[in-house]
Amino acid sequence: MPNQFVTSAANASSNDLGAAADGSLFVLQANGTTEVRAADLSLTSIPASAEITQIPGRVSVPGVTAHPSGALIYQPFLTGAPASPGVRGGIDILDAHSGALRLRIFLPQQFMTDVDGLHGGFLATDENGQRLFAITSSDGTPQNAALTVVAILTIRGSGFQNGATVAINGKTASVTFKDASTLSVVVPSLTPGSQQITITNPDGETVSLDASFTAN
Questions:
Q1: Angle at alpha carbon of residue 109, lines to 105 and 113, rounded to 5°
Q2: pLDDT on residue 52
Q3: What is the reported pTM?
Q4: How far separated are the first and last CA of the chain, in Å rounded?
């Protein structure tokens, strides 16, 4: 943008950048902090959520991404040291303005991390913000790298309990309890066709819905 360029030292620690589709918002990681900047690159907020600090050994991963609308920030992380046994990848979805944690997603594998932040990112979203694309690896090594596609399904109803589980065509899905009428579900890998959803509350109550949606 004319007259709105800024310069910084070559060794500046800013190493990750995402942008809203219309260029009205930029999000970047600098000095270990996520910053939100306006179209003129002025600092507007530093989202922070107390829940983020609840994961011991949390490690940030290159690939911070903004929702196309600029309303949400997708922040990838690892639950521990890269390439360590049992470490998983995760994505925190934050409100871009308040910093509140809206949803936390855990992936079946950990993010790739063997490329530094100046040369690679490991998370992206589609043009509608409906799907996330993550470069993952079963053990953190390039030879086992793969592309993980994350689709988030919102289930609305009534009587949901905290700790409810969801299975889609028999496959267990990752569930986030929002309230008694809303569940957010990370859709597992599915074969194309009609899908049955089964919801089970901790007290054993179960309900199933045939042909709930079609995977393609």
A1: 100
A2: 64
A3: 0.74
A4: 41
